[in-house]
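Subgroup meeting minutes
Present: P.N., E.W., G.H.
Scribe: E.W.

1. P.N. recapped why we're keeping a running log of single-chain structure predictions: easier to compare across weeks, and new members can see raw inputs and outputs side by side.
2. G.H. added today's entry (292 aa).
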Amino acid sequence: MLAREGPAAGRKRLRVNGVARRPAALGAAMRVVLFAPEEMLLVIGSPGLRRDVLDRLAADRIPGYGRSLATYERTLRQRNGLLRAIREETAGRAELRFWDGAFLDAGAAILDGRVGLLAALAEPLAAAHREIAPDEGSLTLAYVTNAPAAAGESSRDALARRLAETADKEVWNGATLVGPHRDDLAFLLDGREMQGTASRGQQRSAILALKLAELDLLERLDGRPPLLLLDDVFSELDPARRGHLVRRIAALPQAFVTTTTLADLDPDLRAHGTPWRVEATDAGARLVEDAG
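Output recorded in log:
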């Protein structure tokens, strides 16, 4: 249940069976796969989009990952502030040691979690892509890190080495230049990076395959199908890809699909669902079942 604390405050309280929960803890109660229009840019968009997808799925799948991510983000802010102070000669470099331990521990946990997630995604991703686009080649994902580990080196040791190598440059820039906040994810088609080379159809196949693989991977955790949320995405898909997605949706116990026009939805999908429309009211908005 989602409730606002007050009409003007804009704050929200989340409860599960009447018990207050933090948003980060909701993954264990309800796993969600989101398919939104902006994710149609995953292949060619900014690295931040791809990192967000990895982190969202890793937080659902890996115990403690969300805490590591929160710790990393907090220490990164503190470290960046300290680097700016060092550049302005209002702090000394020795003060970095206070933050570096937590930064390295959390950063290594994120790196290991992301790499492990990609390994787990490999098989369901390849299978989903073969189903959607059997003639387009083999789809794989590669983790692109700015702190690659040398032979026999742990991810923490590699990150520590790179921090030492970039220490002077970091002070000059007043920012942390290495770490998982600057890493990326590459989509590869038959071993060739898709960014800059793939057609729009190939990009859509890859993104749809990733989402279907995400559904499979989350369901394997405990046998519970995740809740699928689709925000106005069917207008971006051609009929063949729509058909693959509709079949997956029809097999799920529950999914929410939003669209600006019902005609954008596949007739088979409309036959499986109950349409609702959003109506504006003086109090904001309400959902009304659409009998038509």
